[in-house]
Amino acid sequence: MTTTTQTLSTEALLEHLAYLKLAFMLEQHAPLAQEAAQAHWDPIAYLARLAEGEVALRRERSVQRRIAQARFAVIKTLEQFHWTWPKTINRLQVQHLFRLDFLTEKRNVIFLGTVGVGKTHLATALGYAACLRGHSVRFTTAIEVVNTLAAAQRAGRLKPALESYRKPAVLILDELGYLPIDRTGADLLFQIISQRYEQGAIVITSNRVFKDWAEIFNHDATLTSALLDRLLHHAETILIEGQSYRMKDRIES
């Protein structure tokens, strides 16, 4: 093959790889070709290495895309959790959750405890683990959901707004109970929980025990009962007791 023909072939290859959006192959085909020549790979081995690299790159990009779409406030992992700080926590129960069976079985997970005991950390870590395993996740606070849906309702766009919370495999509702929710907000939140009932997993963190949830929802006992009925039918509750980890330095001083 002449130098001119080889150059044209290389240019055509680069154009094809760019058109097919094969980023790894576009960047690494030449270095790997040199390595293949030195190691005497056969053509299949060379092609296999290119394909392997392309698959790995696409998987990593897919993971990063899911993490971005989840909208985590900050990334947390189970390995970062301080097990010795809470006064009471069922470690085996929590670790079992990270098998993600609750997700595929479309069950709910509820973390209950006072401020600063690690509820949000564990909920975020569950969501992050789900992203790594190929599942879609949405992280938000309960109040943000209410405000977003109320604004969408006023704008006549409630249906697509509800869909954005119904669609992910895991919906994480953080800080339920930290602020009161009026009747309209309670009705909107109920729609989310009702639509996801036996259709998708919900992870909730709350500083209120269940018997006090009516206080969250404008003292509407009927709506609260209906909400808890759907939420707890297929659910696992993790109770965490202890003092706030964020106050650790002051407590120990």
Automatic annotation (TrEMBL):
One of its GO terms (biological process) is DNA replication. Pfam families: IstB_IS21. Residues 105-239 form the AAA+ ATPase domain. GO terms for molecular function: ATP binding. It comes from the Bacteria. The keyword Protease does not apply. CDD domains: AAA. SUPFAM superfamilies: P-loop containing nucleoside triphosphate hydrolases (SSF52540). Keywords: ATP-binding, Nucleotide-binding. Belongs to the IS21/IS1162 putative ATP-binding protein family. This is ATP-binding protein.
